[in-house]
Amino acid sequence: MALIDKYEPFRKNVNFIKKYEKALNAASGSEVDANSNVSSKNIATMAPEVHKKDNIYTNRLWMHDKLTEMYGKDIADEYLRQLECHEIYRHDESGMPVGTPYCASITLYPFLFDGMTKIGGSTTAPHHLKSFVGGFINLVFAVSAQLCGAVATPEFLAYMDHFIRKEYGDDYYLDSGMVIDVKGQTLGELIDDYFAQTVYSINQPAAARGSQSCFWNVAYFDRPYFEQLFDGFVFPDGDSMKWESTSWLQKRFMKWFNKERTKNLLTFPVESLSLLNDGKDFVDKEWADFAAEMYAEGHSFFTYTSDSVDSLASCCRLRNGIQDNQFSYTLGAGGVSTGSKCVMTINMNRLVQNTVKDRTWNQANKLAIQDAVKIQVDKIHKYLTAFNEIVLEMQANHMISIYDAGFISPEKQYLTCGVNGLVCGAEYLGIEISNNEAYRDYVNAIMSVIFESNKAAKTKTIMFNTELVPAENLGVKHANWDKKDGYFVPRDCYNSYFYIVEDKNLNILDKFQLHGKEFTGQLDGGSALHANLEEHLTKDQYAGILRYAIKTGCNYFTFNIPNSICNDCGHIEKHRFDKCPKCGSENVDYATRVIGYLVRVSKWSKERQAEAAKRYYTPGI
């Protein structure tokens, strides 16, 4: 045997590197798990890509062992078969070891006592505004390193308000123009500087995440949400939260972030505003009015509305029920801690076609599809439960220090059954994708089975939910896999909405109906409506749409209007232009949400760029 022969098995890595070098961008260069949250293609972004396939095999082997132990070899083999046949998909299988939780909305309360010392850091508990901001930035990076996906910090601005008040008094917000140093800096300017330090720092590439930025999410609350979430809250020094100053700080941050995005296209944080409604109108009129104002000024954020403080929208599409809304002197506000430990997604288009061959929607086919969905969900519950056991083993061996430190508890994170290809399955059956009886019946026939199965499988320590997954790269994969295997595939990407993204016959109000309670009432894990508009609306128009969301029961949504960036002079505007109004250059790029987060279209994968070109942007309402 020649000496070189023992190295030849790694030839695939050399070939991959050569191919990656010539790729359009980092997303296109990835063969396994592409995403657009990478600012540039370089050696740092390439390094984790080389071993992604090995990671997948490692994850699958470990899961097979655990499933065999818990349920026997047949179900373990079925897990591998379903993955290989693209009937299901486990998210983030390629990047992190099995047992790594998916995403979390964390409480910052342990940070006030121990800093980062209980998760391996040297940062101690903050005692003033400067140390809070610096320590918080480090915390986001450290927590993100122990998650596959997003980290949400709903308390960030309320805690920041606490430290501002400690130094400048409870009424600081009434005089933000006060001069605070010999250089003439005002308090408002200092606060803006801390905003900038936090946001720009967290948008930097993270070495622990393959040179991606941290997927960071923040939350804003109206008064009733704030008061119910933080009722009885006490800081370690005995201080309580203050609504008036926190409300002011939330508004200032939104204004600052919106303006800052005309200087630099900042992807994170993804923002979600929670507004309580009474079934007819918003309870907090001031914050509903402010939401309409910010949308009219071009800001890009999500709105979550509910008629009770029963859940928290903590990610760019994921809604999780609040299990414990009580304050604890050990754990802080229980209502902000939630998330998902693992997401496994059903390829619904393939399931429908495997079940029904005559391509019609009738009672017999409906029952057959429901039976198939029930069988599939029961399998996924077993797969997710096995994953959960691996997580608990990791926790028991102190491998997930964010659990040990109390930032999140595994019992508060869901196990999520994802859905992709739902619309394509309906099209296969000849169902028109609009607000009609047949389509409503199809959607609810499927979702009701999953919803009831999730409820039945719940235990004291395990919870299941369902979401229409964003599927940034999975939507393209499912279409390619299904097309290759001879299935009906109506488009090159399976999107995660209840409508066809290129359909020019649907207006904005139609889309709110399609994401309303008649379609999403049994989707307990969430789906965000991305209302694509050609141009911004007026404040009054946005206010009307916000009220229409209550009427339809559309509880989670945002508005997408393409931003334009001049590649020569850097000028940014919050609407589309083909020629830079500042320097006259036609070398322009555009930015919109690839799924939940805002990023340059040129950073998307080649396939997603093709999908973006087909998206229909409604010209007004």
What does this entry look like structurally?
Helix content is 42%, strand content 13%. The chain is built from 22 helices and 19 strands. The strands form four sheets. Strands 1, 2, 3, 4, 5, 6, 11, 12, 13, 14 and 15 form an eleven-stranded mixed sheet that branches. α4 runs antiparallel to α5 (73-84), α7 runs parallel beside α9 (187-202) and α14 packs parallel to α17 (437-457). The radius of gyration is 24 Å and the shape is globular.
Alpha-carbon Rg, integer: 24 Å
Proportion of residues in extended strands: 5-15%
pLDDT under 50 segments (min length 5)?
325-334
DSSP strand count: 19
What can be said about the biggest beta sheet? 11 strands, mixed
How far apart are the first and last residues' alpha carbons, in Å?
A: 72 Å
Structure, briefly:
This protein is of the alpha/beta class.
Write the layout of secondary structure elements.
Elements: H1 11-21, H2 26-29, H3 43-50, H4 52-71, H5 73-84, E1 88-90, E2 103-105, H6 109-114, H7 129-144, E3 151-152, H8 156-168, H9 187-202, E4 216-221, H10 223-229, H11 243-260, E5 270-276, H12 285-296, E6 302-306, E7 311-313, E8 319-321, E9 327-328, E10 332-333, E11 338-347, H13 348-355, H14 363-396, H15 401-404, E12 414-420, H16 422-428, H17 437-457, E13 464-468, H18 474-484, H19 508-514, H20 517-520, E14 529-532, H21 539-552, E15 556-560, E16 563-566, E17 572-573, E18 588-593, E19 598-600, H22 606-614
Parallel strand pairs: 2-3, 3-4, 4-5, 5-6, 11-12, 12-13, 14-15
Antiparallel strand pairs: 1-11, 2-11, 6-15, 7-8, 9-10, 16-17, 16-18, 18-19
Helix pairs in contact: 4-5, 4-14, 7-8, 7-9, 8-11, 12-21, 13-16, 14-17
